[in-house]
Design goal:
This protein is of the alpha/beta class. The chain is 40% helix and 13% strand. It is globular.
Length: 247
Amino acid sequence: MDPLRRQAYLQALGIPAFTRRESGQAESAVVEEVGAAAAAGAAEELAQHPGRPVADSGGAVELAGLDWLSLQERASECRACGLHEGRTQAVFSAGNPQADLMIIGEAPGADEDRLGEPFVGRAGQLLTAMLRAIGLMREQVCITNVVKCRPPGNRNPHLEEIAACRGFLQRQIALVEPRLILALGAVSAHALLDSDEPVGRLRRRTHAYGESAIPLRVSYHPAYLLRRPAEKAKAWEDLQQVAGLLG
């Protein structure tokens, strides 16, 4: 990659860039954090929890024949778990439902619940910058979450809530037919891979999702990166892998 272009990408992502001293020593350049809102406050750090295999809710068969709009309508009416009681609206997806890259997070937060679109709060601003760092706009990818309704207090979704929503996610993936899935955070990675390994291990390799063996990469959730900016360098490595797989 062109060094100037790489420097611009690193600045967009908000991670340290490195230059060489004349003596050959490396030093870190000072860069600004991505987005004023992101710098103003930090989202809750993604809590790790044991990712036991999640059983299908049984909804996948019922949802199998639905197109995108019908599936979205069904999600807006879903009452399969208790999360519907506190939602303003179900948060189905954003972006292109025919995208090569599908990004799957964990659950909507307060901003997402209010606006009806995933990743629009502080973490969403960082995700947008991360996508720009590999030359993608939000409109070019498909973005969704493991569950479609906001858990109380922005807590992690419970296993039974993930199971209740799994049919929707499976049908979304089947309709999009992405060339690559990017799972953000432990909740997403564990639900998709039926694994309890930490993100730090899962992110180091390409996995296969489902019968079609869709390539799947794992990276840190943007909310976690806002609290742990030192991990952004690892996220940059993950993005480079994603860009390479997309060609």
